[in-house]
């Protein structure tokens, strides 16, 4: 579960969140808002990367964060995915599962490549693959599909929302199609979250 209640956050003299409340419990939420409205700040607070100035933050279970800019390790694509998987599972089983995820994201030929050899769209898909492989309870997605061309994005979105069904998902997006994929659409306006 992911939940914030009446969260307040300021950066210097600028109040970004003014009593924002949002909950995702086994559901997917599309989060929209203008540039600088606090969308990413809200995700970072839920992930524990920022501290709220006030209000309550409640999370249960494991949380995965897909950043707007991929943050990959300087190892192969396959190793980037396997490194987050359960260490109690035999490595061969983890590698097989990682290859399945990569194949589903159109990356079966990229498993041996390193991040510097990837296009921005490929790197974004590796970031998504790693999050799925982590098998978290909660997912925070910050514009995860923005580096993808339309055809690839459609394929990736279908796979991601199938793989994350039943998980708690909050996704920052500017795309109407992405909004339709989610169970709920909320919008940040004047530092508050409004249900659309």
Which spans have pLDDT < 50 for at least 5 consecutive residues?
Answer: none
Q: What fraction, in percent, of the residue positions are helical?
A: 25-40%
Largest sheet: 6 strands, mixed
- What fraction strand? 25-35%
Number of domains: 1
- Please provide the ordered H/E string of secondary-structure elements: EEEHEEHHHEHEHEE
The CATH level-2 architecture is identified as 3-Layer(aba) Sandwich
Any idea what the shape is?
globular
CATH domain class name:
Alpha Beta
Content-based structural category = alpha/beta
Beginning-to-end CA distance, first to last residue = 21 Å
Could you state the CATH homologous superfamily?
A: P-loop containing nucleotide triphosphate hydrolases
Count, helices = 6
Cα Rg: 17 Å
Strand order of the largest sheet: 5-6-7-3-8-9
| Mean pLDDT over the residues | 96
Number of strands: 9
How is the CATH topology named? Rossmann fold
